[in-house]
């Protein structure tokens, strides 16, 4: 785990109330929110930048459709008034959001990514961040996903989907560590 710069940014992705909807299915990492809160508290105590990313869906049947409670941040992970909030309409938090510009304007080069869904918005954002030249770290126990059925109809347990997504990221895009390892580097 590389030493974190004093301006390493914590990106908290899509931790909105809609993630608690039973219709999303069975998930892994039941303690992910606890790890996210530990990281958020450490970031705040060290005065490092925090970016809260919120998904605003274009699909009326989404848990993130505007104007419903699912769009709101989970209470334990609410942004403070001075923390940056990014709204996105696609999984990748860099697409059409101004996030890259915001980070560059503050000379931020290191990103620590947590949130949901591991194989969707977390992976898309981490891949783009890596491709754009940021030093990206994904915190494995501060992310989670859901069981997923593949195109052939096979159901994959969330644990397997999570592990494969993190393995894909670790090949070329991001470091993958635990919350304990990150907190040790602060």
TrEMBL record:
PANTHER family: ISOCHORISMATASE HYDROLASE (PTHR43540:SF1), PEROXYUREIDOACRYLATE/UREIDOACRYLATE AMIDOHYDROLASE-RELATED (PTHR43540). InterPro entries: Isochorismatase-like_dom, Isochorismatase-like_hydrls, Isochorismatase-like_sf. The keyword Hydrolase applies. Pfam families: Isochorismatase (PF00857). GO terms for molecular function: hydrolase activity. This is Cysteine hydrolase family protein. It comes from the Bacteria. Residues 8-178 form the Isochorismatase-like domain. It is an enzyme of class 3 (hydrolase). Keywords: Hydrolase. The keyword Zinc-finger does not apply. Its EC number is 3.-.-.-.
């Amino acid at each position: 785990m590389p030493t974190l710069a004093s301006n390493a940014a914590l990106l908290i992705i899509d931790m909105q109330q809609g993630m608690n909807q039973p219709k999303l299915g069975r998930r892994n990492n039941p303690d992910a929110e606890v790890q996210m809160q530990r990281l958020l508290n450490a970031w705040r105590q060290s005065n490092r930048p925090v970016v809260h990313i919120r998904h605003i869906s274009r699909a009326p049947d989404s848990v993130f459709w505007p104007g419903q409670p699912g769009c709101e941040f989970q209470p334990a992970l609410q942004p403070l008034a001075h923390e940056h909030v990014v709204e996105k309409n696609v999984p990748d938090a860099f697409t059409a959001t101004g996030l890259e510009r915001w980070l560059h304007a503050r000379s931020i080069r290191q990103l620590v990514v947590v949130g949901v869904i591991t194989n969707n918005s977390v992976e898309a954002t981490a891949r783009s961040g890596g491709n754009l030249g940021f030093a990206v770290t994904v915190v494995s126990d501060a992310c989670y996903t859901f069981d997923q059925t593949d195109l052939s109809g096979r159901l994959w347990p969330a644990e397997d989907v999570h592990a494969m997504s993190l393995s894909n990221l670790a090949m070329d895009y991001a470091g993958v560590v635990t919350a304990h390892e990150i907190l040790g580097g602060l």
